[in-house]
Amino acid sequence: MHIITRVNKGGTAKWLDVLLHGLQDAGHTVVLLAGNVQENEFEDDLFGQVQGIRISELGRSISIFSDLKSFFAIRKIIQRESPDLINTHTAKAGLIGRLAAFLVLRNRPLIVHTFHGHLLYGYFSPSKTKFFAYIEKIMAFLSNHLISAGALVRDDLLKAGIGSKSKYTVIRPGIQVPLFEDKAAIREAMHIRVDSVVVGWLGRFTQIKRPERVLEIASVFPNVYFLMGGDGHLFQQVSSSAPSNVILTGWAKPEDIWAAADISFLTSDNEALPISLVEASYAGLPAVAESVGAVSEVVSNGQTGFLVNGFEERKIALGKLINDQVLRSKFGEVARKKMELEYNADTFINSHLEVYRDLLSKKITS
Predict the structure, then answer these.
(1) pTM of the model
(2) Under CATH, which architecture does the 2-174+345-365 domain have?
(3) Buried b / exposed e across 226-262, counting CB within 10 Å, b at 16+?
């Protein structure tokens, strides 16, 4: 059983898409529990594909009444379905789902939580961050195992005292190789000249993703197109102030954005392991990305792109790639090979199965 706050389109939904379908193909029964997506979000098709169970009270915002209702609803479903193992995802579902599972006194399932990222910086004030870290310490104690999407995410959590190293397994995202559209055709559909240089950006239009940085840098390169895919509460604000060389598509398929682009661009203040950059690398694109979170596990600085900090470094790095087609091709080819080796779907699914089977075998023999 997998429990997540909501299955909105994005990196975590893609993680679950590959994992849940992979588990089903391996002969396992999978149950998915999730709440509703928020305004300005779109639910991923995965929820319907696996016939997910809706926990309507499970929302991203904190509400004591709704959170209690979701706790009892989840515990009731756990008691009814009697899963061997529960894997929770995202902070809210991780808290409520793990508590609900732990307080099932008869046939308690094994409890695994996946950290796709963390809330240790970039989200809350120091006092709130300290509080959430304390909660995560308790929840780590109640968990049988922890999975982190990258070594840097794990190391940050360990520094905060959340769990012990022996309790973690690092699993990188697994990507089914995307089928990219023809570059000329997709550019024609977007009214972009085939011989133009295009910088692609894909993500939620939220404060943590810093989409306004794209507009800032676009003004420096007026002859370059900046293609922005995604939506969120900042979309209208960004759209209203975007220069003419910025194209906002709204929600779009990654296969289209990266097929049209020559360079991938990430501007976030905080990231776990960005699946969008993994997909862009599969398209053979070099990257310019903020050196935050686990981004360095995807982008090898000076080999597949550039890791940057601040406006000046963004400008210099983008300028190098914009003005040097040979360098773009060289970095892009190395990026593609790196993804094929380190981020393939089979390794990703098998790594999860190894964790699950090891936990189940220890439970049976204990």
Answers:
(1) 0.80
(2) 3-Layer(aba) Sandwich (3.40)
(3) bbbbbbbebbeebeeebeebbbbbeebbbbbbbbbbb
